[in-house]
Amino acid sequence: MKVNIDIDEKHEETIVTIKTNNWSEELEELINLLKKQKPKRLFGVAEDQTVLLDPKDIDYVYAEKRKVFAAIKEMKIELKMKLYEVEEILIPHYYMRFSKSVIGNLNQIQRFELSFNGNLCVYFHSGNKEYITRSYVAKVKEKLLMGGQLND
Prior knowledge:
Blueprint: H1 25-35, E1 42-46, E2 49-53, E3 60-64, E4 67-72, E5 75-79, H2 83-90, E6 95-99, E7 102-105, E8 109-114, E9 120-124, E10 129-132, H3 134-147
Antiparallel strand pairs: 1-2, 1-5, 3-4, 3-7, 4-5, 6-7, 8-9, 9-10
Organism: Ornithinibacillus bavariensis
Keywords: Cytoplasm, DNA-binding, Transcription, Transcription regulation
GO molecular function, one term: phosphorelay response regulator activity
């Protein structure tokens, strides 16, 4: 697949043109991705109150005892969603799967250390830490090398 981008002040709006000789599943996924608007916030519950959460402020989201929580600094806020539903919302915000039960914000990573068992211990700017299991380490490293941090 070839991608051409033409950035010029004469263009008044963004136009996407796809030229192909046949329809494919990859093309359908691309169309769905382009059409999908990413939600700007999540809703959480803290002390019986609904709280608006900005994805860029969340360090990681994890599942524990059949509940899903967002870790923001020293706070743990419950999300009334399934982990896979949260993952679909957060993927465009530079999140990746760290393990079967954790999705992490790559922009909040400060540093990481390799553990003796092949896992990575990730330290976030807030002081929180979480582990990336061996099966996800290569994908996370590749993503970090390709893009580094996003500056919104």
